Amino acid sequence: MRRATLLTSTLLLALFVVGAEEQAKVDRNYVGDWEAKDGDKTMSLIIRNLDDKNYYVELTEDNKTSRYTAFIGAVKDAQFANLRELTDDGTIQDERLIMRVGLKDGKLELRNLKDEFFKDQTVDSQAQLTSLIEKNLENKDLYEESVVLTRAVSK
């Protein structure tokens, strides 16, 4: 598993997904332009509906833009975004960035899975990943600190 950053967090990149892409359905409440501030840093997140199953996601932080396709899968009542990076050279990445997502009071909360939590865990299948997450769904050690985004103000 590899690492990526989101407002200085270390994120888990996994070979397996949470949920089934063919059963995914876009929640239009996620669609829009979002932003978060962390001191003098601003992160912007653009989410669009691609085909009622998948999202287009564009993340800009530290003057670097990353683009993804994504779908949302569920473990019990919790939703997890499964993001696959769109590369500049057109190669398709095997790994997915997985994070817990949720909407509350008009704000978007992202809770990254903590790489450290999985360090000593064996995850050889989608079923094992889902089971491990389900058993630890409310375990704070599973997640990095939350990032809360608000809808961006139109310019």
Number of strands: 11
Q: What fraction of the residues are assigned to beta strands by DSSP?
A: over 45%
Biggest sheet, spatial arrangement of strands: 4-5-6-7-8-9-10-11
Percent of residues in helical segments? Answer: under 10%
Run of helices and strands = EEEEEEEEEEHHE
The computed structural class is mainly beta
Stretches where pLDDT falls below 50 for ≥5 residues? 1-10
Assign the CATH topology: Lipocalin
Q: Whole-Å distance between the termini?
A: 39 Å
Q: Identify the CATH class.
A: Mainly Beta
General form: globular
Q: What is the architecture at the second tier of CATH?
A: Beta Barrel
Spatial extent as radius of gyration = 15 Å
Count of separate DSSP helical elements: 2
Mean pLDDT figure: 88
- Biggest sheet: strands, sense, closure? 8 strands, antiparallel, barrel
Structural domain tally: 1
